[in-house]
Amino acid sequence: DSCVASPAPGSLKLSTVMACPTGCHCIQKSGMTVVQCMSRNLEKIPSDLPRDTVVLLLASNHITHVPNHAFRELHYLQEVDLSNNDIETVDVGAFQGVSDSLLVLDLSNNHIQSVPKEAFARLRAKISLSNNPWHCECTLQEVLRELRLDPETVNEVICHTAVQEEYAGKPVIQVLDSGINFCNFHHKTTDVAMFVTMFGWFTMVIAYVIYYVRHNQEDARRHLEYLKSLPSSSQINKDCDTISTPSP
User: Fold this and answer.
1) What are phi and psi of 81, to 5 degrees?
2) CATH superfamily, with its number, for domain 2-180
3) In terms of C-beta density within 10 A (0-12 exposed, 13-18 middle, 19 or more buried), how is residue 248 classed?
4) Contact between 110 and 134 (Cβ < 8 Å)
5) Cβ neighbours of residue 30 under 8 Å, at least 6 residues apart?
6) Domain limits of the chain?
7) What are the LRRNT domain coordinates in residue numbering (predicted)?
């Protein structure tokens, strides 16, 4: 497939032919290049996207991963739809190069449990993260603090699991608005773990000292008993006198 771009006003060229990824359909719409790759059984994001792509539709495929620099060359990219895929991981630099241009990002209905807090750094886009099996903890809290979530789907960002089990099944924003701070809980958990570790080491040291003392006490007791079993100096002198005195 290929897409044919309409000539710019005043251009001497009648048309510009641009490459389109295999299995996708590229069209010009209102002066924008729209790349449609929906429901094409794609397992990864195409690497040969037209550089003037403005709208990229990748919904309903089998994409599992958004790699670093996936859209780096697409300087005009405004909208990316990755909904209804099998995405589990989003790399730290997945959206590097498009943070200034991207306006809409849809990652809803995937398998994302967590993302690096730097993955969406400096993105101004309206983002949909609904219907993913999110694990609610400190990193997710820090990620959401920096995002501009789609207000229509914000209540569909649910804690599938959480560091505090009672919040599983509840909307993340609702939990955070109630005053819960997962980062404080994380620190408390770390402090408890450190205390338990230190207590374990302290117990081992005490046990060793007790063992050492008891072992030395046993050695001392045996040594004392040995010394007691030896003849005394007075007995030795008496025996010597008996031997040295001549018989009458």
Assistant:
1) -110, 110
2) Ribonuclease Inhibitor (3.80.10.10)
3) exposed
4) no
5) none
6) 2-180, 198-243
7) 19-55
